Each structure stands twice: as C-alpha cells, then as structure tokens.
UniProtKB/TrEMBL annotation:
<dbReference type="GO" id="GO:0004568">
    <property type="term" value="F:chitinase activity"/>
</dbReference>
<keyword id="KW-1133">Transmembrane helix</keyword>
<keyword id="KW-0325">Glycoprotein</keyword>
<dbReference type="GO" id="GO:0008061">
    <property type="term" value="F:chitin binding"/>
</dbReference>
<feature type="transmembrane region" description="Helical">
    <location>
        <begin position="36"/>
        <end position="56"/>
    </location>
</feature>
<dbReference type="InterPro" id="IPR029070">
    <property type="entry name" value="Chitinase_insertion_sf"/>
</dbReference>
<dbReference type="GO" id="GO:0005975">
    <property type="term" value="P:carbohydrate metabolic process"/>
</dbReference>
<protein>
    <submittedName>
        <fullName>Chitinase-3-like protein 1</fullName>
    </submittedName>
</protein>
<feature type="domain" description="GH18">
    <location>
        <begin position="80"/>
        <end position="447"/>
    </location>
</feature>
<dbReference type="InterPro" id="IPR017853">
    <property type="entry name" value="GH"/>
</dbReference>
<keyword id="KW-0378">Hydrolase</keyword>
<dbReference type="GO" id="GO:0006032">
    <property type="term" value="P:chitin catabolic process"/>
</dbReference>
<keyword id="KW-0472">Membrane</keyword>
<dbReference type="InterPro" id="IPR001223">
    <property type="entry name" value="Glyco_hydro18_cat"/>
</dbReference>
<comment type="similarity">
    <text>Belongs to the glycosyl hydrolase 18 family.</text>
</comment>
<dbReference type="InterPro" id="IPR001579">
    <property type="entry name" value="Glyco_hydro_18_chit_AS"/>
</dbReference>
<keyword id="KW-0326">Glycosidase</keyword>
Length: 463
C-alpha cells in the first residue's frame, strides 16, 4: 500500500505538470487536487478524485479521448519508452542503414541524429531532410511511433554555448525548432549538448542555468502552440559531469524524459591506458572510490537522488563496444594495461556485427563474462574488446523493470546487427535483424506487471 501511494504521488505530479499541456480534463483535475491539498486531504483521496473526475470526463471506461491526449506521458505508462538513436546516412550512402530498413515496431521513439545549431538555429543538411521524410513514412505502419530530431552529439554541438546565452538567441532557436517540427510532421526534439558548463570556463557557471532556461522556454512554446510535442535531453552518466551540467530538478520539470548515456564508462585514452567495460551494470567488488561510481546502477541512483522521476529515467544501452590493445597478452583481465585501441572496428569503437564476425571467424577467442558487472568481454592475443551481447542487454532491460524506470535508450540502431548476419557464439538462435534492440524491446514490452497495467488504466483516464 505504501509503495502504491508513493506511485500515486508521481502520477499526480505528472498530471499537474501535464495540465500545462492544454487539456481541459487536466485543468479540472488540477483544481480538484489543489482544493483537496488545501483542505489537507491525503494523497490517495486526491488520487481517487483524479479517477472520479477523469471517469466523469471521459465516460465510464471509454477510451475515446485517449488519442487526443498528450502522447508521450500517457504512452510511457502504458508501455515503456524504447528510445532508439538512428544516425542518418551520409549524402551518398551505399551500404548504410536506411529508414526503410528499420522495423517501425521495434522502438517507440526514434531520434534522428544529429542536427546542428548554426547561427542560433537548428540546421540540417539537405540530404538529411530527405531522410526525415522517409522516416516519417514509417508512421504509416505504426501510427504510435514518435520521431524526434536530436540536436548536437559528441563533438558536434558547437552552436549551443552562443545560442543559450540570452533570451533573444534562444528565441531564434525555438522558432527554428517550431518550423522544423511543424513542416516535417515530427514529434519533438532531443537536446544532446555534451555538455553544458563543462568546457567553457568563463561562461561555464551560467551555461547550466541558461540550459535550464532553454528547456523552460521550449516547454512554454509547446504550450503556447497547444502541441503535445516531446522534449528530451541526452544527459551524461559520470557524476563529475552531472554535478556541473544539469539542474536535475529543472530537467524533471520541463522534459518528457531523459536519455541517460550510461556507456563509455571506460575506453582507451592516454589518461586511462587500461582495459575496461563500456557499460557495466553494477560495480565490481575490486572497484573503490571513483571507479566504483562508473556503472549504470550508480548513475541511475544518482539521478533518482537528485530528484528525477523514475518514469523519466531512460537507461542508455549501447550496441557498440570498445576495443583495446593489450600490453601483455598474458594480462587480460579487466583493468589490465593497454597500449592503444584494438585493431578491430575503428578508433576504439566496434559495432556488434564486427564483434560477431570476429568471434565466428577467428580461432581460440576467449569470451569471459563478468558476473558482477553483468557484461562480457573477449580477448585473443593483443585484442581486447568490451561489448554487449544478448544476455547483457537482457540484464539491463531487467534492471529497468526491477527499478520501475521509464525505459531504455539504445545507441544506436546503426551499430546493431541490422542485417541479421550474426551467427554463432554471441548470437541467439532465431533472432535476425537488430538482435540487441529486439531483445530489449521484447523484454520491456512483455513485462508490464499487473499493478502497472492498473496504473496505466488510471493514468489514461487521469489525463
Ligand atoms: C518551414 O516552412 C516555412 C513556410 O511554411 C518556411 O518559411 C520555413 O523556411 C520552413 N522551415 C523549415 C525548417 O523547413
Ligand atoms: C546499486 O546502487 C545502490 C545505490 O548506490 C546501492 O545501494 C546498491 O548496493 C547497488 N547495487 C549493486 C548490486 O551494486
Ligand atoms: C587454438 O588452440 C589450440 C589448443 O590450444 C591450438 O592447438 C591451436 O593451434 C590454436 N589455434 C590458433 C589459430 O591459435
Ligand atoms: C489489477 O486489477 C485487477 C482487476 O481489475 C485486479 O484483479 C488486480 O488485483 C489488480 N492488481 C493490482 C496489483 O492492483
């Protein structure tokens, strides 16, 4: 019962917040709740009132109003978010993943990566507009699919510092976003600034506040427009960045959900010349202090402690891995000395099909599972690779379910085995095409517990 009430509290705050998104139903709900709170009633009384008002508004158990209700929050309760990044093909793509190659039912949200900020406006290349048009056609098959444009991305987010600086430049940006969404029938934007206040020593202190202001102003513009557009942020995982870059309470107030980039915890750099796991779920017992914070579990609890609602937490799951070159072939544990990137993949990154091909085509590759971090790594001679396999992504999906989080973010569709070529030791029988994304998607979709189903019933009517 206790947890039931706690759950209710989350729902109520959502409903209140969502009220700003235009619904008359919600306005009444809001008044009702405020009145009750003023007369100091209990949360569950208020929750009952929400149900009553909503039932009254929508007709007993009728669902005729569901479709015209702010899409994201409601659908997030009915089903978890599966937010997939898709790197748009280059201009003269020949052998790249094209929109027509994406199963429209695999993800609930697709983030088209990446648009840039140029002269304070959102900017895409002409060939990227063609991709957007192709992508939006997937809605013919799955009308519930949401398509967002992701702005920024690692190393390509140069326009953010100038744009957020003052109200006028933010306004220019927001206007350009509005046109983009409207002109192309898109569902929202995802801001992927890596990272506010981190690089800019002078303006740094204010960048965090300016970013919060930007989020607020975008939300207000959506409301003014009476649109149920989606606003999300791709946010950092390491605490050192989270502390500097975000006002998490503001994120919580203005975004629909946060795609937390819980990967790249370890990769080869000259400052970290050691083997390590890209996306460990839990701490390993030999890890102390700072190293003990570099895992998904720690990051998710950090965001929870900072006040991000559970259902706004979208856990990043990579489909790519990191490669290392061992200094000593006999020293092949996690945290062994490395001299550089491995020779597989490219610049230390490796896509899942390349991992698969290596294991299938090479003799005597050793695969080791780290039972604490719940991920695998492999080695052969000097090659050392941290990667995700069907089991590790399944563990991550289960973590999302156990912790009642909002869903999974997958980076990226391109790095998964979208052609379905993977066979052998790291594959799983009968899963062809996007095996990793598919396992995450199936696991999350099949695990809506009965209490959650009841909640979603309440939630739908609450809107
Ligand atoms: C959107 O359409 C308007 C006219 O309807 C046009 O002025 C504007 O340039 C378009 N913007 C984009 C980003 O396509
Ligand atoms: C997950 O993180 C929480 C909070 O930091 C901690 O209490 C818990 O022990 C962690 N779980 C594991 C399995 O490490
Ligand atoms: C693989 O291991 C076996 C047994 O240790 C050995 O006989 C064989 O030569 C190895 N093959 C390669 C290609 O290293
Ligand atoms: C969910 O609702 C069903 C019937 O509506 C009920 O039998 C079940 O006990 C409820 N579950 C929870 C956890 O409230």
């Amino acid at each position: 019962m206790r947890s039931f009430i706690v759950e209710k509290k989350h729902k109520l705050s959502d409903i209140k917040y969502d009220h700003f998104g235009t619904q008359v139903t919600n306005t009444k709900t809001e008044y009702c709740c405020r009145g009750l709170i003023v007369t100091s009633c209990f949360l569950f009384v208020c929750a009952s009132a929400v149900i009553c008002v909503a039932l009254y508004q929508n007709g007993m158990w009728g669902n005729s109003h569901i479709s015209d209700i702010s899409g994201s929050l409601q659908s997030r309760v009915a089903e978890r978010v599966i937010s997939c990044y898709y790197n748009m093909p280059s201009e003269h793509a020949t052998d790249e993943l094209m929109p027509s190659g994406i199963n429209p039912n695999l993800c609930t949200h697709i983030n088209l990566a990446f648009a840039q900020v140029v002269s304070n406006e959102i900017r895409l290349e002409p060939h990227q507009y063609r991709t957007i048009i192709e992508m939006v056609k997937l809605k013919h098959t799955n009308p519930d699919l949401k398509i967002l444009v992701s702005v920024g991305g690692a190393g390509t987010d140069k326009g953010f510092p100038d744009m957020v600086l003052n109200h006028k430049s933010r306004k220019t940006f927001i206007k350009s976003v509005k046109y983009l969404l409207r002109n192309h029938s898109l569902d929202g934007i995802d801001l992927d600034w890596e990272f506010p206040a981190l690089h800019n020593a002078l303006g740094g202190g204010r960048e965090r506040q300016h970013f919060s202001q930007l989020l607020r102003e975008i939300r207000m513009e959506y409301i003014r427009e009476k649109r149920d557009y989606i606003l999300t942020v791709a946010a950092a995982a390491p605490q050192a960045i989270v502390d500097v870059s975000y006002d998490v309470d503001q994120l919580n107030m203005y975004v629909d959900y946060v795609n937390i980039m819980t990967y790249d915890f370890h990769s080869f750099t000259k400052y970290t010349p050691f083997t390590g796991l890209n996306s460990p779920l839990y701490q390993r017992s030999t890890e102390q202090l700072y190293l003990a914070t570099l895992n998904i579990n720690y990051t998710i609890h950090l965001y929870l402690d900072k006040g991000l609602d559970r259902n706004k937490i979208i856990v990043g799951i990579p489909t790519y891995g990191h490669t290392f070159s061992l200094v000593n072939v006999d020293n092949h544990q996690v945290n062994s000395p490395a001299s550089g990137f491995g020779s597989l993949g490219s610049l230390g990154f490796i896509n899942f099909p390349d991992v698969c091909a290596f294991v299938t085509n090479t003799e005597n590759v050793t695969i080791t599972r780290d039972n604490e971090a719940k991920v695998s790594y492999l080695y052969k001679n000097k090659e050392w690779v941290s990667y995700e396999d069907p089991q590790s992504v399944m563990e991550k999906a289960k973590f999302i379910i156990e912790n009642k989080l909002g869903g999974a973010m997958i980076y990226s569709l391109n790095a998964d085995d979208y052609k379905g070529e993977c066979r052998g030791a790291v594959a799983r029988a009968g899963v062809a095409g996007f095996p990793l994304a598919k396992i995450v998607s199936k696991t999350l979709k099949s695990h809506i517990s009965s209490s959650e189903q009841n909640m979603s019933l309440v939630q739908r009517r609450g809107h």
